[in-house]
Amino acid sequence: xxxxxxxxxxxxxxxxxxxxxxxxxxxxxxxxxxxxxxxxxxxxxxxxxxxxxxxxxxxxxxxxxxxxxxxxxxxxxxxxxxxxxxxxxxxxxxxxxxxxxxxxxxxxxxxxxxxxxxxxxxxxxxxxxxxxxxxxxxxxxxxxxxxxxxxxxxxxxxxxxxxxxxxxxxxxxxxxxxxxxxxxxxxxxxxxxxxxxxxxxxxxxxxxxxxxxxxxxxxxxxxxxxxxxxxx
Length: 232
Fold this sequence. Notes:
- By secondary structure, the protein is an alpha/beta fold.
- The protein has two domains: 2-18 and 109-230, 3-Layer(aba) Sandwich (Rossmann fold), CATH 3.40.50; 20-105, DNA polymerase, domain 1.
- Helices cover 48% and strands 12% of the residues.
- Helix 10 (190-199) links the parallel strand 4 and strand 5.
- 35% of the residues are buried.
């Protein structure tokens, strides 16, 4: 079946680029450089747990159109600070600026990401579909050394739509000249990547490293990127 595919569309964050590790390293630097312990945030581990929970909720609101990009970027920090009874918008903006400056230059990739890109690059045309911001994602790709693998990088800004909405998948086909029957989406987010692609009529590979239980039926499912060799 895999022989029919000509275009592989990868998600970036959590699929190829190790967002969790890179974000944790970035938040640690922000915590230390802005001396958050002295500001009233006594423990980094507690801070990162609260921030990550809030960030997830805020991203969900952003995808649904309830908040704008700039609100997302600084309010997640403001809300995290409020968990420690700190109401300081200036500090939240400082944290946001530092985070957005440090995060994209982090270089950790998911296990076997580079290997699977090397394996696929001469057999398929590779692209990205990401809800991340244009400039941020471009810097991530450059610093992590994988920018040259992709013919097209489709971002939500560029496509004026976000996964899981149909519009970004339709835009991706137009931008790449790919046929839907020759295209497949690889991503880690069941609702955003997999169901989004499925509802748009695409085949999908659900990358599920945590082996989370679910009742959906993706075209393929793997728990390690190296398993893609068995598909492609």
